[in-house]
């Protein structure tokens, strides 16, 4: 254990932690838009409301199930980032959502809702970039698509991810959650923005930390 701790790049861990905090802010903004969240977050929110459990706690319970799968078939994907994302992301989302709604009301005009979705895309993409690029561990839900790709190499990662997100969106809808523009944009629109932040921001931050 002590050797494992010594090998941790704590500078990268800080970047990853900040990324998770920013990711929580982005998800909260998506929720504020009223046009749907990313498929997984939307599913968790809808199911949590159905069973009457706080979103952050329900997310932890669901992550435990995915974490078992990750331990069995994707142990190499586990890191400190896995634990932080699984245990604390829900609380980051709840904190920021409560903070924002204590200051402003949720937008009720379509134009402002669309603008809110766009802001959510930008902030969430930055959070994803800062959480993933340091390679400090993969979140339990995100690991499922990677495990599927490894188990069935003929199926591209893109289709594994899309299928998982589609199932999450379907469950969200069946549970009474919102599946809308925010869901669609987050399912297909994060890639280019995450790549942009990877190239023009996060990679440069990590390079400076290595000096």
Please, could you describe this protein's structure?
- Helix content is 80%, strand content 0%.
- By secondary structure, it is an all-alpha fold.
- It has one domain.
- It is globular, with a radius of gyration of 17 Å.
- The protein starts with a helix and ends with a helix.
- The model has no long low-confidence stretch (mean pLDDT 94).
Order of helices and strands: HHHHHHHHH
Structural class: mainly alpha
Rounded to the nearest angstrom, the distance between the terminal CA atoms is: 27 Å
β-strand amount? under 5%
> How many distinct folded domains?
1
Principal-axis shape equals globular
Helical percentage: over 70%
Can you count the beta strands? 0
Q: What about the largest sheet?
A: none
Poorly predicted runs: none
Overall pLDDT:
94
Gyration radius, to the nearest Å? 17 Å
Number of helices, where a helix is a run of at least 4 consecutive DSSP H or I residues: 9
Please supply descriptive tags for the structure shown above:
mainly alpha, 0% strand, transmembrane, single chain, membrane, transmembrane helix, 211 residues
